[in-house]
Amino acid sequence: MPMPTKTPPPVDGEIVEMDLSTEMKTSFLEYAYSVIYARALPDARDGLKPVQRRILFQMDRMGLRPDRPHVKSSRVVGDVMGRLHPHGDVAIYEALVRLAQPFTMRLPLIDGHGNFGSLDDGPAAPRYTEARLATPALSLTADIDEDTVDFSPNYDYTLTEPEVLPAAFPNLLVNGASGIAVGMATNMAPHNLVEVVGAARHLLEHPEASLEDLMAFVPGPDLPAGGMIVGLDGIREAYRTGRGKFLTRATARIENITPRKKGIVVTELPHLVGPEKVIARIKEAVASKKLQGITDVADLTDRKNGTRLVIGVKNGYNPEAVLAQLYRHTPLEDSFGINNVCLVDGQPRTLGLRELLEVFVRHRLTVVERRTRFRLARRRERQHLVEGLLIAILDIDEVIQVVRSSEDAASARTRLMQVFDLSEAQASYILELQLRRLTKFSVIELEKERDALAQEIAELEAILADDALLRGVVSRELALVAEEHGTPRRTVLLEAAGSGHVAEVERDDHGQAQRLELQHHPQRHAQVGSVGHGDDGVRTGAVTAQQHVAGHGLVGAGGAQAVGPRQVDDADVGVTDELALALVDGDARIVGDLGVRAGQPVEEHGLAAVGSAQQGEDEGAGFA
């Protein structure tokens, strides 16, 4: 999208007549261009919007590193606004707060001190909070002074700012992004650092790797709050096209909250869903009779135990059935729409997983190559000076005589260049030499430094001459970042509701992702009425009326459950020898009365289905 032509300012005292439609079109294009390129969309290389990049860069320049004390957020906001981002303090502080929130960022980039808000409440004013860079942020700004990225003038042309950060890890995939521009928007899910780095390293070693190869390392998003992602088809579509949708579910289990009363305990909520929002929706649904069987809701969340939402269930109601209705009618189950719009070479594009990794890998290769050239030039300059020093020290008496007999520094420099065949840089360096550098020990040190410089120069030249070595350097640095900042996956991935098929990533001895496997597991938390494992590893138990059988192939929007003997109309019924199974409103249910009674075992029948319920001869023993 080319930059629209700006209307030239009128001369003082001159009135310029403009067509209203033309002026409106031009002004809107200028505004849209500014919002798209300088405000709302992140750069695909470092994953940052301009305001975020300016905050991190300015905090790095202020020396607010993890080993330094926190400073008032107002000071950071003021410096960023005055030097780099003249768009108001509110926007800057909101961006700073987001970078520090662990429930928003999978890998927070700012270490906040004070009230930086929650999912239900906003942060305190900037005069009350303090901030400094978090350790992962140093990986984004590392080597920025070694000519790794281009700089451009700031808004008043008095300072310069980086056009992009060096970014030692794929920040856009790891932390995601969201923003609304003009005519377009972006909404990207966060991912696990170790998995994303594994995919990037695989792409470095195998540039022709397919999307399926990369998805073996990155099976799906990894949300900061954990929870479950139900249904991976939308994720696969998003990784392929850049657009998709998936469902996020809270993690809940059934507990005895009193000796005679059961309840539902929620320990992980969907992405960006707060407890107060859930409680409000539960109360609304109970008042409108959409939810039944709930006595009370208590929010016991604290810093020590984390999220804990306790929902009381009335006696006589099946907690599993109540949980299924909670998923259906409250934010305990929420959708996330992926829209991977970001800037690539200054153009907004919608990218899939492979394209996002390709852009980052190209950027990182460029950064490391530029850094290598910078370091090579510095090593050669130092080598040149060391060689001149060694020449001067070998005949130091004559050097002193030449300097003492010269009228001024300029003539001394010229005579040294003539007598000892030195360059201007070498002669100037010798004139600035301190007497303590003229000892025999200094000569030995200089000789060691000369040999070390020669070895470093050879290594740097080899990296620039061999693309495989360059890729190896990038790959090793990525592995170090993953080892330092990587954390285990928090979000469980399920192929479909109640399927029990969980996407798992195999890792090597160093924790690096190797490949993805789809494994079958029962529901993550042991629950009353769910399938459990005996000591011998065989599923045992019995199906009773009103009993939940989630986790074993009964797929439905509200969860698989057994509802007891009754007639079901307009249902797709499949009959086994003793069980009648139906899909009712997307739920797999046991609906017939064909010999099944409360407490009666069905060990002779296995239920195996993904998308529908059917008889499975080899599925296992029975269900509890």
- The total count of strands amounts to 25
Strand arrangement, major sheet: 14-9-8-17
Percent range of helical residues: 25-40%
Strand content: 15-25%
Instruction: Count helical runs.
Output: 17
Structural class: alpha+beta
Q: Average the pLDDT over all residues and give the rounded result.
A: 80
Q: Could you state the oligomeric state of the chains shown? A: single chain
Radius of gyration based on Cα positions: 32 Å
Query: Which spans have pLDDT < 50 for at least 5 consecutive residues?
Result: 509-624
Summarize the main sheet.
4 strands, mixed
Compute the separation of the termini in Å. Answer: 61 Å
Shape: elongated
List the helices and strands and how they pair.
Layout: H1 20-40, H2 50-61, E1 71-72, H3 73-83, H4 89-100, E2 110-113, E3 130-133, H5 135-141, E4 151-153, E5 160-162, H6 171-175, E6 177-180, E7 185-188, H7 193-205, H8 211-215, E8 228-230, H9 233-241, E9 243-249, E10 251-258, E11 261-268, H10 275-287, E12 294-299, E13 309-313, H11 319-329, E14 333-339, E15 341-344, E16 347-350, H12 353-394, H13 396-404, H14 409-420, H15 424-431, H16 440-465, H17 467-485, E17 492-494, E18 501-507, E19 513-520, E20 561-562, E21 572-575, E22 580-584, E23 587-590, E24 606-607, E25 615-616
Parallel strand pairs: 8-17, 20-23
Antiparallel strand pairs: 1-3, 2-3, 4-5, 6-7, 8-9, 9-14, 10-11, 11-13, 12-13, 15-16, 18-19, 21-22, 22-23, 24-25
Helix pairs in contact: 2-3, 3-4, 7-12, 7-17, 12-15, 12-16, 12-17, 13-14, 14-15, 16-17
